[in-house]
Every structure is written in C-alpha cells, then in structure tokens.
C-alpha cells in the first residue's frame, strides 16, 4: 500500500490519485446556494426580548429572577424578585409592545422563518394552573398571524429557560416528576391553540446544558448536602420524559407538526494527538450527546448508563418510562453553534464559553468576550449531527456578540458581525454541497438586540437591528438597522449566493 504524504502525494507514484486543492477550487467556482425551501431567518427567546414580565396575567419565570451581570461577574439567581436588584428581563427590549414594528423589519430582511419561544408563564402563570391565561394565548395568536401574513414560518421553542418560578417554589421545578405533567398540559394547550399556524417546534432549549448546572435551564436548586450529579441527572430524566411526551402529543394533535430537540453544540477538539486527549474529547462529546442520543433514538445508550455508573447515580424511574422515550423520538435536531471547545488531560486554566468552561484554542480568533471564532467548526458540527443521526439538522442559533456603537451619522457599522456571518454561512454551504448534509435552515442569533442570557448585558449585542437600551436599562428603545441588516437581506434574497 503506498504511503500518503501530507500534501496529498503518494510515495512511489508519479502522480497523486487526487488533488484536494484542485477539487476545492473546482467546487468553489460552482454556484453554491441553499436548497429550495431552506429556512433563512433569525432567532430569539421570549425572556431575552419580550419584557412585560408581569403584564396581562403573566407569571414570574425563572429568567425573571436572574440579575444583570457582566463579562467578569456572573448573574445571580435570587429567591424570587429581590428589591434593589436590576433584572434585565423585566423590560428587556420590549418586544411585547414593539412586535409589529419588529416583525415588519424581519420581513424587510426577507425572513422565511422566525424562531422564538413561548413564555410558559404567560400561558400558565404558576405552571400548575388548571386553566390557561387567555391574554397570553391571544398575544401569540396575534404574533403568529402577523408572521404568517408576511410569509414567515414561526419556529417555536416550547420553553427557552422560562420555567414558571412558582414551580420552583412549590416543587423545586423538574426535580419533581409532577412537573412533567404540568409541561404536558401546557403543550396540549399550545399545540391545540396554534394548530395550523405553527408546524415547526422544539421542546427544551439547549437541554444538554443541564450537564453544567441546571439553574438557568430549569431553575432547580440543589439542596444542601445533596449529591449534585444525582439531582441533575434525575432532573434531566424528567426533562427527557417531558420532551418525549410533547413530541408524541404534538404529532397526535397535528400530524403535520415537525418537532425537534434543541441542543448546545457539543463540538470538542482534543488538544493534541496524545491518545489520552482523544479519549477526553470523546468523553466530553459523549456527555453532551447524552440528550440528543436519547431524544433521537428513543432511549438511553450504553454510554449513558455507564455515565450513571461512573457518577454513582441511580435514576428513579417508572415502568412506563422506556415506552415514553421510545414513542417520543424527535423529527430533527436543532442546535446552537457559537464556538468550538478544546479537551485536555493536562492541568490547565479554563475560560468561560457558552454555558460552560473550556480550554482556550490558540488556533482561532476570539471575540471581546473570549469566545473562539471558529466557522469551520460549524461545518464539522453539522456533519457530526447528521452522520450520527441521519435526520435533518437545523442551525437555530449562530451569532456574534459585540459592543456596537451608533456613529455620528446615525448608523451602526458592524463589519465584524458581517465577517462572522459570512464565514459561518460559507461553511454551512460547504456542509450542504460538499458533504451532503441535510440542513433545514439557518436562523441567525439574533435578529434584533436583546439581553445576553449568559451575562445579562445589553452591550453584548447580537442583533442586526440595534435597540437603544443600555446595561442599566436606560434608553429610548428606538430601533436602528445595522449594516449587517442590509448584508443579510442580500444574502437571503440571493439564497446564499451573494455573501459579499
């Protein structure tokens, strides 16, 4: 067998069997655009931009109990709303009172899809109420109708870090199995109410971030002296049951529904080719795939069971649980991608990333918040998910947080964001055209400025529309199109061909 050199030449042969550079050039000369029906759009979350936190019957959510933070100071999760603290979600960027204006701007950008979430506590203020709040249901009726009038497909997350806080107070959230039933009741209500309006759903946002906490995901509190792993993996089991029940129910209520999971991208690179680093990266990836494996395949893998064993966890289950998981397999995999991670077996200081701490990667640039900028990682992530599951994948979050400023001419110039999106979309197109990945769509995070989930800041801006509001809650809430707004409008209009 001939030896292959690093540059593609084969020892002992006059010419290489292929030339990877030539193939790459030939492909780049071809027109690469997204397939017909591809869902271009933007993404958001109710708790990060709606505001109106107790308006029209809405109840307190877990997100409403997180104070503002900064890039160096973590947000505090308080026991309810404590006087003297600033809670940015209470007003956020006030989409609740600006939604018509904002949807019109989304339509001007050419959106085919808009991803947001329903605030569970806007529908069931306490989570366990017997009857839903009609005012909350009516708000989303009007929002979905407006989107559809512009030809924009609603893509709805059932809960995006928005568990009603009353469930924390009464049951410690999903630590109690009864919350599975409360979630199922909520799902039945919204699936029935919005039948024919919403056909694309996701269950729990970034469900796999449970492995790194659980407070922001569900509001669960770890009792003093309790085994952290036991509590969190039991909560995770209840979330997976709730997700599976929602999928089955959604299919029964409307067979046209497509319901996906939503996971935080679990792409870990080994730090070196040292075999132990390879094993560590495999373990780190497996821990994050724990949730999507269960949601796609309909049951726990052998590796999941070995994880319980290694952590000394014994799940409390019921005889019907295996059937519930088996009958609730998702239709597609939705995921967020901002950055890749690095796994290492050597003692090394870790930096903060998206919902987790990780080893710094010296081969990629970083944002002002220290997040690695790795567009190629998006292509790898798309391939990983598709190769693993062989069902459609949907990049529902991908974006760049930066400090934007309004220039003296009244415009917001953000070439750094345009560069980020251009490079990521180029890699997404390669995944489609060169690798054969079945990608449903791309919803950029975020369509409009809103508060950062991780830091609670406004100055860490993701949107293509600027909102006049600062970290202390001051500002007019005026909307201003950024340069990236027009760039994305052209990208969508050309179906991904014009990324210049």
UniProtKB/TrEMBL annotation:
It holds the Pfam family Glyco_hydro_1. One of its GO terms (biological process) is carbohydrate catabolic process. One of its GO terms (cellular component) is cytosol. GO terms for molecular function: beta-glucosidase activity. InterPro entries: GH, GH_1_N_CS, Glyco_hydro_1. PROSITE patterns: GLYCOSYL_HYDROL_F1_2 (PS00653). Transmembrane segments: none annotated. Keywords: Glycosidase, Hydrolase. The keyword Hydrolase applies. Belongs to the glycosyl hydrolase 1 family. This is 6-phospho-beta-glucosidase. It comes from Holdemania filiformis.
């Amino acid at each position: 067998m001939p030896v292959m050199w690093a540059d593609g030449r084969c020892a002992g042969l006059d010419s290489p069997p292929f030339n990877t550079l030539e193939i790459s050039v030939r492909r780049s000369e071809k027109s690469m655009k997204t397939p017909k029906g591809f869902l271009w759009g933007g993404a958001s979350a109710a708790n990060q931009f709606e505001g109106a936190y107790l308006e029209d019957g809405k109840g307190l959510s877990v997100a409403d109990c997180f104070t503002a933070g900064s890039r160096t100071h973590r947000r505090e999760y308080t026991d309810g709303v404590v006087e003297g603290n600033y809670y940015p979600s209470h007003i956020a960027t006030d989409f609740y009172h600006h939604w018509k204006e904002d949807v019109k701007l989304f339509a001007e950008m050419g959106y085919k899809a808009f991803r947001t979430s329903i605030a569970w506590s806007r529908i069931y203020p306490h989570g366990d109420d017997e009857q839903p709040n009609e005012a909350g249901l009516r708000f989303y009726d009007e929002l979905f109708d407006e989107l559809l009038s512009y030809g924009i497909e609603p893509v709805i997350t059932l809960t995006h870090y928005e568990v009603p806080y009353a469930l924390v107070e009464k049951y410690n959230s999903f630590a109690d199995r009864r919350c599975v039933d409360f979630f199922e009741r909520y799902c039945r209500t919204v699936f029935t109410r919005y039948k024919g309006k919403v056909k694309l759903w996701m269950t729990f946002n970034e469900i796999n971030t449970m492995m790194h906490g659980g407070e922001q995901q569900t509001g669960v509190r770890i009792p003093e002296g309790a085994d952290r792993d036991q509590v969190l993996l039991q909560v995770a089991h209840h979330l997976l049951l709730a997700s599976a029940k929602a999928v089955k129910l959604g299919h029964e209520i409307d067979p046209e529904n497509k319901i996906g999971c939503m996971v935080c991208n679990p792409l870990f690179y080994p730090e070196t080719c040292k075999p132990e680093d390879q094993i560590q990266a495999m373990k780190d990836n497996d821990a994050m795939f724990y949730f999507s494996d269960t949601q796609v395949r309909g049951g726990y893998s052998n590796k999941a069971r070995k994880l319980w064993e290694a952590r000394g966890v014994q799940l409390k289950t019921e005889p019907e649980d295996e059937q519930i998981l088996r009958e609730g397999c998702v239709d597609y995999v939705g995921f967020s991608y901002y950055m890749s991670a690095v796994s290492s077996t050597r003692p090394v200081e870790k930096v903060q990333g998206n919902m987790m701490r990780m080893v710094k990667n010296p081969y990629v640039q970083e944002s002002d918040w220290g997040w690695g900028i790795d567009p190629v990682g998006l292509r790898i992530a798309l391939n990983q998910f598709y190769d693993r599951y062989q069902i459609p994948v949907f990049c529902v979050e991908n974006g760049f947080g930066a400090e934007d400023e309004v220039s003296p001419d009244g415009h917001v110039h953000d070439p750094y964001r345009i560069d980020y999106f251009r490079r990521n979309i180029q890699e997404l197109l390669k995944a489609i055209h060169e690798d054969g990945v079945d990608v449903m769509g791309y919803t950029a995070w975020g369509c409009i400025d809103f508060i950062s989930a991780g830091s609670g800041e406004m100055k860490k801006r993701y949107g293509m529309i600027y909102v006049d509001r600062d970290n202390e809650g001051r500002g007019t809430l005026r909307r201003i199109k950024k340069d990236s707004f027009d760039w994305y409008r052209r990208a969508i209009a050309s179906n991904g061909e014009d990324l210049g």
